[in-house]
Amino acid sequence: MRFDVITIFPEFFTSILEHGLLKRAIASGHAVIRLHDLREYTDDRHRTVDDRPFGGGPGMVFKPEPIFRAVEALRSEVQEKSFPVILLSPQGRLLTQAVAEELSQAARLVLICGRYEGVDERVAENLATDEISIGDFVLSGGELAAAVVIEATIRLLPGVLGNEESRQQDSFAVPAGRPSADGHGLLDCPHYTRPAEFRNWKVPDVLLSGDHEQIRLWRRRRALEKTWRRRPDLLAQVSLSEEDRRWLEALKT
Ligand code: SAH
Q1: Minimal CA–CA distance to 161: which of 13, 31, 61?
Q2: How many helices (H) and strands (E) does the chain have?
Q3: Which of 29, 114, 122, 196 lies at 20 to 30 Å from 87 by C-alpha?
Q4: Helix, strand, or coil here: 119?
């Protein structure tokens, strides 16, 4: 999968691309990430990317021309012209695991990072095919948001995670054969590792028992319980077994 990031701070990404999963995904050829300096697409001596807002008010706004030029240059490189062009914006649709799944199906994504007061609205209206927000808060720029989209998407590409099973068990993942109305699963169950006792806090006995069926049941119940307590909105969408329902009823009483 190829990512083209349009930004005024390409160096912002160097460190995250050199660690952990992203580094491995790039080294193994699962992902290609190209950083494009928006200033390369300006045509004045000062390489101006922003200007004052029409109508007055504080701050600066990204001009449309360099962004259009950058995306059009990327389109002209390839036969397939219809790849998603995503504007990172707090006004976009919220990034969720289901949205990450959807994005991971594309062969190529363009990510446009805004700064200052944002981006001339004509980019959202006439160039971007999608706007994505990483949450209901405002960042100073789209770079961190683009990095979040890239990481959430890349870890879903087949072969990128060493252990595909671990992905199936993650929070929000929808296990095979258990569809949910909005594509969301439960929160993950708690995890523990050695030592079995740490400062008087003991790991639940069942995890040390070696009884796989009991462990499976315990994990499912803890996942249901956590989701019920913290994110009942997710629980409403998940397809539950009879066994799950009985446990939830027991919790509620
Ligand atoms: N005035 C704008 C915010 C501009 S923040 C508004 O209130 O809607 C500057 C840039 O940071 C945005 O153009 C966007 O690219 C990025 N950004 C800020 N918050 C974001 C979020 N929650 N998700 C994705 N991108 C965000």
Answers
A1: 31
A2: 10, 9
A3: 29
A4: strand
Q: Which of the listed residues 138, 144, 148 should we mutate to test ligand 1's pocket, taking the one with most ligand atoms within 8 A of CB?
A: 138
Burial class from Cβ neighbours inside 10 Å (0-12, 13-18, 19+) for residue 97 reads: middle
Q: How far is the CA of 6 from the centre of ligand 1 (A)?
A: 15
Rg (alpha carbons) of the chain, rounded to whole number: 22
pLDDT digits (tens, 9 = 90+) for 211-243: 999 999 999 999 999 999 999 999 988 999 999
- What's the mean per-residue pLDDT of the chain? 95
Q: Is the CB of 141 under 6 A from ligand 1?
A: yes
User: Which two tokens mark 141?
Assistant: 């720029």
- Identify which of 36, 37, 10, 16 has the alpha carbon closest to the alpha carbon of residue 154: 16
Residue 225 CA, chain-centre distance (Å), reads 25
Return d(Cα 228, Cα 237) in angstroms, integer.
Answer: 12
Here the tokens at position 218 are 């315990």
What spacing in Å lies between the alpha carbon of 184 and ligand 1's midpoint?
25
